């Protein structure tokens, strides 16, 4: 009958629609599976990248630590190479044409008058002005003594030399000078008696370093 035909047609249409839905669902599931595999792949790559970044950071940290250790050793070596040196401020008579020999003679005259009359040219390995000549200032003089013992003796009499118009300072590498400057600032802010020795500050029984 006509009614039965319509029912069959409706069922066929419904079955077709269901089949289309199933087909679409299968396609969607297939696409989701592909996307899932891609996500897994991306996550795997991301994990590898994170691992490589972690390893790179560890390498960089190790290199930085090695560089810091090497720089510290270089600074120590440089300071040791300067241990017989002293820097003199207030050595008058600076001139553009002044020779190392003339500079050395001025240092000998100052030291023989204020420190030890037995000091001669043999007591000094070399002495010369630091920096470029300028009409409006007197350049400091760096002196390398023939022995650490003599250098230490001169340094111990720095107050005598200062009273005579000449200031004496030890010669250190840049890193040590910066550390001593910071330690000196710290020491003066503590309102206590302190001593600054090489790259350490002492207040009572406590020692400080600048890091």
From TrEMBL:
Residues 53-80 form a coiled coil. Keywords: Coiled coil. It comes from the Eukaryota. InterPro entries: Transposase_22 (IPR004244). This is Putative tick transposon. It comes from Ixodes ricinus (Common tick).
């Amino acid at each position: 009958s006509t009614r039965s035909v319509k029912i069959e047609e409706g069922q066929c249409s419904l079955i077709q629609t269901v089949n289309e839905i199933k087909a679409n669902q299968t396609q969607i599931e297939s696409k989701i599976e592909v996307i899932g595999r891609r996500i897994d792949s991306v996550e795997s790559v991301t994990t590898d990248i994170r691992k490589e970044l972690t390893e790179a950071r560890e390498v960089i940290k190790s290199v930085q630590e090695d560089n810091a250790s090497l720089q510290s050793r270089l600074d120590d070596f440089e300071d040791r190479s300067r241990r017989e040196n002293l820097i003199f401020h207030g050595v008058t008579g600076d001139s553009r044409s002044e020779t190392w020999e003339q500079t050395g003679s001025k240092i000998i005259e100052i030291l023989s008058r204020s420190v030890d009359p037995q000091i001669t040219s043999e007591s000094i390995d070399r002495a010369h002005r630091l920096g470029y000549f300028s009409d409006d200032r007197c350049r400091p003089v760096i002196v390398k003594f023939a022995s650490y013992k003599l250098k230490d003796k001169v340094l111990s009499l720095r107050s005598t030399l200062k009273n005579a118009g000449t200031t004496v300072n030890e010669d250190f590498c840049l890193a040590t000078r910066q550390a001593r400057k910071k330690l000196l600032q710290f020491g003066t802010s503590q309102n206590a008696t302190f001593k600054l020795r090489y790259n350490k500050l002492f207040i009572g029984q406590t020692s400080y370093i600048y890091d």
